[in-house]
Amino acid sequence: MLEADVAIVGAGAAGLSLAHRLAGPGSGRRAPSVVLLDAPPGPLRPPRRTWCFWEAGPGRFDAAVTASWRSLRVRDRGGRPIDGDIAPLRYKMIRSDDFEHLVARDLAGHDGVRRVEGTVDTVEDVPGGALVRLRDRDGDPRVVGARWVFDSRPPGSLPAARTTLLQHFHGWFVRTARPAFAPGTAELMDFRTPQPADGLSFGYVLPLGRHDALVEYTEFSPRPLTRDAYEAAVRHYTDDVLRLGDLEVLSTETGVIPMTDAVMPRRTGQSVFRIGAAGGATRPSTGYTFAGLQRQTRAVAAAIREGRRPVPPPAHSARSRAMDAVLLRALAGGRADGPALFCRLFDRVPMRRLLRFLDGDTRLHEDLAVGLHAPVGPMLRSALELPGLPRRPYERPLNPPTCPAPATPETP
Fold first, then answer.
1. Where is this region: Disordered (predicted)?
2. Global confidence as pTM
3. Please, which residues bridge with residue 392 across strands?
4. 167: which of 65, 67, 257, 332 fits an S-S bond (Cβ 3.0–4.6 Å)?
């Protein structure tokens, strides 16, 4: 049996972030020994993906940042731009391959972190710790024993909730024949897309140069689309809305992020915890996760180094989660016009303050000031409705249809 102080199940953003923090400089105590368990290449390992977040000044993972922007834009359904300078914040983009390479490089010099490939079958409490049972690449059983286990794998199903929407998206990394993008500004929400009958949709453009960008179609709605529907939606956005002209699709990405008021369990045993999206790091109203899991893993690493029980803290305050529950209910019930609501917020609230609000970094009076720019009637009715609603399990599949990334550039 392989033994360690900490076992981390899953080497995605949350698992790698926690391992990186535990291997970094501490408070003078001995660095804990860590086993990082990663799925072998195959269907259990997530595809390449992109994470975005905002922060002020230099960040821990800046060496992996693909691009960043200090100017954001939102467009209403008529195309009117709402621009904002978010300095000193920067909106940052990290691709998972670059993040993994950065963390692997930093961990390579630490004897206290060991990486093991295998398919985890069970995680169970035992006196004084927990056991992780897995099968290695050859199918042989192995056991890892640890004082603390942190499981970052996506949950197979969602806990019961009053409201659950999905943020689902399909995007193309494109290269255009003519200069088509303004590298200094990221288009956060472009509502010139056809709006679904049940939910809202928008375009999302992260320019990487005059000719290169990530262009995505995103929906907040109850269910994912088919692969053909995603492709048609992105093609309509690039051809008919953005009018990009001739372009190459360099790669694609597809994802589904639950937007739910479900209570995500952060502890599943005396020594077993959940981190990342599975542990509630996702902000329900936006789908952003990377910043929340950084707050969570920072607190966990500090607790372990200080000899405290490392229960992951909530990534978002109770007040933030309550406001998100009201917003999700208003959107899901059709009471609030989603595009109009978001455009009104970005138009009337300084963008930097609105991003701080979305990060839970505002005080009560600031939250109330932001809330006054939302449609008061629909929000109030949704808030009054929530206490009487039962929590029900989400029974639809979470996985989107497969949209494989082309191995070589293709021209649509």
1. 390-412
2. 0.92
3. 161
4. 257
